[in-house]
Amino acid sequence: MAAYSLDELEYWNDKIEKLVWDAGLDCYEQHFEICSYEDMLCYEAYVGMPSHYPHWSFGKAYERQKTFYKYNLVGLPYEMVINSDPCIAYLMRDNTLLIHILTMAHVYGHNDFFKNNRLFKRDTRANLEMEMFKAHANRVREYIQDPSIGPDKVERILDAAHGLKFQTCRHGERKKISEEEEGTVPERLKDDLLAFLAEKGKLAEWERDLIHIVREETMYFIPQLETKIMNEGWASYWHYQILNQLELPQGLHLEFLQRHHLVIRPHQGQINPYFLGFKMFEYLDQQPGGREKIMAIRSEDRDQSFIRRYLNQELCEKLHLFSYSVQGDDIVVTEVANEEGWKTVRDNLANAVGLGSIPIIRPVGVEDGTLLLEHVCDHRELELNYAQETVKYIVDLWGGKVNLRVKIDHNPKIISCSEGKIVNIHD
Amino acid sequence: MAIFKDGNTNSSDRSAWDRKRHRQLVEESIKKNLGDIIAEESIIGQSKDKKIKIPIRGIKEYQFIYGKNAGGTGSGEGQEAKGQVIGKTNGQPGQQPGQGQAGNNPGEDVYETEITIEELTSYLFDDLQLPDMERKKFAQIESERKFKRSSFQRKGIPPHLNKKRTLSEKIKRQKMAQRDKCDSEENESPERIPFHENDLRYCRIKEDTRRHSNAVVICIMDTSGSMDQTKKYLARSFYFLLYQFVRWKYEHVEVAFIAHTTTAQEVNEQEFFHRGETGGTYISSGYEKALEIIEQRYNPAIWNIYIFHCSDGDNWGEDNAKAVALVNQLCTISNLFGYGEITTSSMYGSAISKEYEKQIHLENFIMVMMGDKTDIWPAFKKILDTESGGNS
């Protein structure tokens, strides 16, 4: 083992846990698992789930991360936390003692957030999630091993379902999928392309099941996507508070400050969720009635509402936020955080966080076996190469021709994909 | 109270399966792009162990994403002003879902992978999916006959007796006999247990015939003035493929290079691929030289002879008849005669190609036309078809 012992970790954990309680955080039971560098890469590739169904994309994620680390393009994560009850976090063996202390405090922040945030409470069932992933993995493996199905057919459906995984109900309600309603696109499937395809597509029972598996998983991950800034901000804010009260020896304290600032540093021209979330919670906690307020916010909000409600002019200016657009090959600043511009900056940001960064494609009808879809367009348009490829996935699941209404340079167009996967774009 | 667990250090590598599948997909994507790769000038004339870098597009996971016009939000230093240009896009598609960022996204996955030319060619020819049967056809001369021992049998001739195995069989029997005796409590120890016929083991001998084949590739290139850089480049790519192919098939491949204008001379590989000349064209001169080389060094009874000729077909009229006659002659002694005409300007064949078409009806003569580098691979495939068909 490295320059620390398990006893030391337990010693610091006791102190941290006490401070966590004193601060009024409310956590699931916490389990820490100490793992190797390779294990960490693996957990990362499999979105933290130790038992996940197999698919090549996870192999790709693994290779990619590994290459990135090798060339020092990104640092290894200090930890990985899973929204489950008990809450499981992985600590990487090779890290220093201070990183472990920082990480543990950080993990309790996430743990509290998982347990108390409305989205997680409503849309995930922390005590069952690990089992869900295991059950899914078993089902997928069964299909792969079934001689009448086999890996290739499973892969075809998973590829398609992965490509459409976010085209599902965004508000988390786990709607019952039943066939009581009539009409080509029943009301309950209007904003749920994936469920629509699972129900109406020309598919075998096991194919529908694979789509449901992917859909269930998306449901599990949507709260994390929708609260990235808040969740990371919250955890960073609490590790900062707690470590300041831990009375660390001076050497460790200096290392702590250095690490902390690396984590929450702004990324030039981008939004670092740790930075934005941390600064916002720090600011809000300093306001009158701050502590209660931030507790309520962490329970009630998601990134979009968090930004819309609490990112004010003062914060916008302090964080030097700006909006940009792409004009030709140039990235041009369109609005800065001043008296007249800050609201636009705030709203642009609020609209692009979480699921706001993913276009919405809706089923609108069926004509002669052709599925009609539309891109619900704000001013943002689809990336066409990707759209043309993704439409093919819809054809795979629908089992027939697909027409997608989009806007290209403000003009309405149709991306049409035949059953033989020939794509063309016309008016 | 939190629970600490030291993760098991020897956990199985559970990503192995998915990584393997991913690598397979990457390989498939390499194979799909081989046509493009093979026409890259940089790999032509390289030694087979040289590693070349080829960029491969990562296996994309397509989703609906926003394009460039989506814009975004960033944090800056406070100096930013409206209308200021803060960066360039580099033709990458827009953001990845879940990151409200722009500018320097690692949008497209481009892997660079290093493979040797040898690997590349094996990909290439695997891709052609030649049935095994055909591969044998090219290997017709038995060069070595070896006998290999493999496993044991109870019957055999004395020279194949395997003493060690026989002895161990005997010991087995001996031990068994002893145990039986112990059980039956008879305590007379036998002085000697002789070998029994059932103990004898013989080596099984397998005949291991190596079919060995010799091939010679004679590359003839028109280096006259009318063959400009582009044409020469096409010809070279084409030879490169053929050369790699023949080398892949035969253990021993010799190559002879002939460059001709109005006269022909044998050159080395370096000169062949890199030199330029001017002058008129007598195609027949190249063929005469080929005949001469075959006569001197490669007896058609022993050697598989492949002759390839690339030209733009711009032959001097008075030479045509002679050329046709020589082609006929060469065809009778070679496995395959390939004529590649490079027609960068028009797709109409030249006078000489029409002559060939009219007058040569031999099965092992093949003529292909190449207009640009996309034609190389199809042309090559066409030649292979002839090769398989012509020999059957």
**Total number of distinct structural domains of chain A:** 4
Task: Say how many strands of chain B there are.
Answer: 13
Instruction: Return the CATH architecture of the domain at 212-390 in chain B.
Output: 3-Layer(aba) Sandwich
Structural class based on helices, strands and sheet pairing of chain A? alpha+beta
Low-confidence parts of chain A: none
* Euclidean distance between termini CA atoms of chain B: 80 Å
* CATH hierarchy, class of the domain at 212-390 in chain B: Alpha Beta
Q: Over the alpha carbons, how many angstroms does the gyration radius of chain B reach? A: 33 Å
3D shape of chain A: globular
Alpha-beta content class of chain B: alpha/beta
Oligomer: heterodimer
How many DSSP H or I helices of chain A?
17
Strand content of chain A: 5-15%
Record field, number of beta strands of chain A: 10
| Helix and strand sequence of chain B | EHHEEEEHHEHEEHEEHHEHEHEH
Envelope shape of chain B: flat
Domain SpoVR protein-like N-terminal (chain A): 5-182
Protein name (chain A): Stage V sporulation protein R
Domain SpoVR-like C-terminal (chain A): 368-405
InterPro entries (chain A): Spore_V_R, SpoVR-like_C, SpoVR_N
